[in-house]
Amino acid sequence: MIDFRGWRHTFKLDPDKPIDDEALEALCESGTDAVLVGGTYGVTYDNTLELMSRIRRYAVPVVLEISSLEAVVPGFDAYFVPLVLNAGDPDWLFAPHVAGLRDYGSYIHWEEIFAEGYLIGNPDASVARLTKAKPIADAEEAKAYARVAAKLCRLPIVYVEYSGTYGDPEIVRACKAGAEDAHLFYGGGIRTVEQAVEMAQIADTVVVGNIIYEDLKAALATVEAVKRPVV
Ligand code: 1GP
User: Fold this and answer.
1) Distance of CA 22 to the CA centre of its chain
2) Of 20, 40, 69, which one is at a domain's C-terminal end?
3) What band does 1 get if pLDDT is binned at 50, 70 and 90?
4) Quick one: 90 and 191 in the same domain?
5) pLDDT tens across 121-150, in order?
6) 125 Cβ closer than 6 Å to some ligand 1 atom
7) Distance between CA 219 and CA 190 in Å, rounded?
8) Candidates 207, 211, 220, 222: which one to mutate for ligand 1, based on the most atoms within 8 Å of Cβ?
9) Predicted pLDDT of residue 76
10) Statement to judge: residues 105 and 184 lie in one domain
11) Is the dihedral of CA 80, 148, 122, 188 positive or negative?
12) Among the atoms of ligand 1, which is closest to the Cα of residue 189?
């Protein structure tokens, strides 16, 4: 069983985006703690299976962040299931989960499943538009969202998602305070070592996504920066 509580750095790969073997090897062998597989649009069973099989050549743990019932592929080390805390469309809270459990409930290995209280901070992200995410009013509200996830619902993970833009450290700090014992992931717009380090000082784990496809070297540099021991 995976233990994400020790993770400091992860890469997130989108099955809908091409990545060549050399780049994939560099990412998987970089020393990152895990590879998350997920995306908002264009995620299919076939492209998810293909990406998982390619990552499986390496020892790094690989986790599927489920975004589509059609693309739930067996064989991952674990499955992260987002519950969108600030979804304006309430169907993004539980409707797909009910549909999934109705059909596949008896096949699930529950020890591999972890629910994420997902808080969307970038209103322009595809996932924000899809779920009609409500804007986060201020740090106090962000903290309250994290508390709803961690304390009220006892979810193991709070994921602050700024996909496509670099987030507000004050908001992330407030989420960390509200998350208490839940594990805090931060993802969104990390393009430089400085940004990776800044968010890693607040969140338990940082997630590096898009930059992989734009500047692989910059993406790889975030691993060492985050995992370097503080002296
Ligand atoms: C996306 O949180 C991740 O789901 C990472 O965001 O792609 O902006 O790095 P970026």
Assistant:
1) 23
2) 69
3) confident
4) yes
5) 999 999 999 999 999 999 999 999 999 999
6) no
7) 8
8) 207
9) 97
10) yes
11) negative
12) 8
